[in-house]
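Lecture 7 notes: from sequence to structure.
We start with the chain below.
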Amino acid sequence: MKAAVLYEVNKPLVIEDVSISKPGPREVLLRTAYAGLCHSDLHFIEGLYPHPLPVVLGHESAGIVEQVGSDVTYVKKGDHVITCLSVFCGTCENCTTGHPAICTNTEVKLLPGVAKRLSLRGQQLHTFTNLSSYAEMMLVHENAVVKIREDFPLDRAALIGCAVITGYGAAVNTAKVAPGETVAVIGCGGVGMAAINGAAIAGAGRIIAIDTNPVKLQLATKLGATDLVDARDGDPVKRVKELMKGGVHHAIECLGTKTTAEQAFQMLAAGGTATIVGMVPFGQKIELHGFDFLRERKIQGSSMGSNRFRVDMPRLVEFYNQRRLHLDDWISDRITLADINAGFANMKSGKIVRSVIQFDA
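Predicted structure tokens for the same chain:
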């Protein structure tokens, strides 16, 4: 099969003929239908986060079941599925207390460098986040997929697998935005758009979209933003506090920089909560003023939207069908696997919301 391989950080991905293993007892072989280009993958391409190399990246995808292992009971050949990097065991303390997104069972959620599912000319290729979706096929644990209805468009389904569940879940599951509350979302890429849409579905009273791209800001209004702040026009913290008379109940940070993480905390009203979704570069620290904690301001992280993906993703499919989840304007470009490096270049330039790789599924 064809796959995009990262051999060295800050180098283009190379399209190779890669071998993939047959399914083990609880594994599922998928034909990849679509895979989204996510900024998280770019972090690894640029070396901002470490990972064993060479590796096949990709983690936002949807596909069709091709073959199942001997002990698989959840899916069968031909099922349409969304993948999720939040593979869960269902038995560890986090899973059994309702937090499967942070499952701790490394026999199911394999650590980087452990999986031996891919190879190239007899040498191991590393799997990324237990998925590796920049490839024509994926071999995954059965608890890394969720079945969806077969009439749902698989390009939209791929978006749900990462950007949508991460942003929507940050607003609904992690921040627990309540009806009437005020929300500021920093960064209007795919994840930020989903956070805006999620806050709207949750019934937020005011939703402020913050970005430097006027096209993305206008799209944010379609997804539920009531106010727009162009960060090029001055201090976004000051602007948010002017709009909300002192700050917001929730600030959701979706860029992953030291500055924006600190701004999220600074724009809170007393008692407000900052939820950090973006991947702040590995090892970088953020600074907060201790006095602000006396006003019961809080800061927290969100991993993949604190998802229960076999519950959340089918609901998101239904929200789309009810025209409450707005995905049709998200896909800026459909590309082939061979165009993947150009796709990441467009991402870095800020030209797109989301590009998806279209495979022959």
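Points to note: Residues 238 and 267 are 8 Å apart (CA to CA). Residues 167-304 form a domain with the Rossmann fold fold (CATH 3.40.50.720).
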